[in-house]
């Protein structure tokens, strides 16, 4: 909801894109921070650094999962303490947000004074003196991109929806955001204990699966960060979706044949394969696309809309999965497999490769 409000009730140029501006609530910061890593470094090769951000998120998820285990803080007596731990990072964000700089690309779009401010911020981010050639080159590229895309004044969510120049990028980003949730990934995380025990898995097996799927998620995130700009976005999306389908087939076989000797090893292998496949492509890339498929003065609004779509899909899937689990039993992940198969076709036909391309070249290809 906060991301939706950010895109439709505000104008992107009126607020900056600081990683947690003072005006920004902790809730609405979800919509902003989804766009900050790539927007801050999306000008040239330095944007590769943004590929590592999802890996850090996955590492935090693993820590949270370990803390939630029954023998750590997941017991009946300690779970309230576990739930209160979320206050700690939120408090740090609130206290330190005033020290986080505006993104250089947004500052450049503000005019001559903004260019001077962007130079200071960029010099600090790159740990360079403001006269170094590489810094000047990056700043010049930002200025050229800003002059080509024009001012972002009075441009909101409804303007983006009517803008034909960004329509294909909006469709690609929206579809990938929805499929990320419709793939069933959060059903595995949120309901793994319920559907595995419902289909005959022991609690020991479920605990092993729970830990391994998060370890696999982190490993896949690290691998994805390495492969992002060597293999390319398309191949990672296609391979990720394909192996997730294989994982669903394996998991379905395990859930529909409880009590067999191979059932527990098959279920463990299937879930780990599913999670790792997601982490390689379907996990990080939908969050990276908005900074690559929208012009710089449209990126903030576009990212807010895409984040809203993603969270709405998350809510929809979370509310409907218990029904499908009861109705389809061991076949409850089959609908997700069909969604992923359709997405493979969509990526093959509609999604361009953005690896190694300047933003201007990507926009030109999208509008051909």
Describe, in plain words, how this protein is organized in 3D.
The structure is a single chain. By secondary structure, the protein is mostly helical. It has one domain: Growth Hormone, Chain: A. It contains 19 helices and no strands.
Which stretches are low in confidence, meaning pLDDT under 50 for 5 or more residues running? 4-35, 37-46
CATH architecture: Up-down Bundle
User: How much beta, percentage-wise?
Assistant: under 5%
Looking at the structure, the CATH topology is Growth Hormone, Chain: A
CATH superfamily placement: MFS general substrate transporter like domains
Number of strands: 0
Number of domains: 1
Any idea of the CATH class?
A: Mainly Alpha
Oligomeric state of the chains?
Answer: single chain
Secondary-structure content class? mainly alpha
What radius of gyration results from the CA coordinates?
Answer: 22 Å
pLDDT average, as an integer?
79
SSE ordering: HHHHHHHHHHHHHHHHHHH
Tell me the overall shape: globular
Distance between the termini: 34 Å
């Amino acid at each position: 909801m906060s991301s939706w409000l950010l895109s439709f009730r505000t104008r992107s140029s009126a607020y900056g894109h600081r990683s947690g501006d003072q005006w920004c609530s902790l809730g609405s910061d979800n919509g902003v921070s989804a766009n900050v890593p790539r927007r801050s470094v999306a000008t040239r090769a330095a944007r590769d650094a943004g590929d590592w951000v999802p890996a850090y998120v996955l590492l935090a998820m693993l820590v949270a999962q370990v803390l939630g285990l029954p023998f750590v803080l997941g017991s009946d007596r300690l779970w309230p303490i576990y739930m209160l731990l979320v206050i700690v990072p939120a408090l740090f964000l609130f206290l330190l947000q005033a020290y986080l700089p505006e993104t250089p690309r947004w500052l450049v779009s503000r005019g001559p004074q903004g260019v001077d401010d962007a130079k200071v911020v960029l010099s600090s981010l790159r740990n360079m003196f403001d006269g170094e050639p590489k810094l000047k080159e990056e700043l010049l590229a930002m200025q050229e991109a800003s002059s080509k895309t024009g001012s972002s004044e009075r441009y909101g969510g409804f303007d983006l929806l009517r803008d034909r120049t960004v329509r294909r990028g909006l469709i690609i980003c929206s579809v990938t955001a929805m499929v990320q949730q419709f793939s069933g990934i959060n059903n595995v995380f949120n309901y793994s204990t319920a559907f595995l025990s419902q289909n005959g898995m022991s609690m020991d097996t479920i605990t092993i699966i729970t830990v391994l799927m998060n370890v696999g998620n982190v490993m896949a995130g690290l691998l994805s960060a390495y492969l992002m700009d060597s293999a390319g976005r398309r191949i990672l999306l296609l391979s990720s979706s394909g192996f997730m389908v294989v994982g669903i087939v394996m998991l379905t076989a395990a859930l529909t044949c409880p009590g067999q000797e191979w059932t527990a090893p098959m279920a463990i292998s299937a879930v780990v394969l599913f999670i790792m496949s997601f982490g390689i492509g379907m996990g990080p890339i939908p969050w990276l696309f908005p900074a690559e498929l929208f012009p710089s003065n449209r990126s903030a609004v576009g990212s807010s809309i895409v984040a809203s779509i993603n969270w709405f899909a998350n809510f929809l899937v979370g509310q409907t999965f218990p029904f499908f689990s009861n109705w389809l039993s061991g076949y409850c992940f089959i609908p997700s497999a069909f969604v992923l198969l359709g997405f493979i076709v969509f990526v093959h036909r509609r999604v361009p490769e953005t690896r190694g391309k300047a933003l201007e070249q990507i926009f030109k290809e999208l509008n051909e």
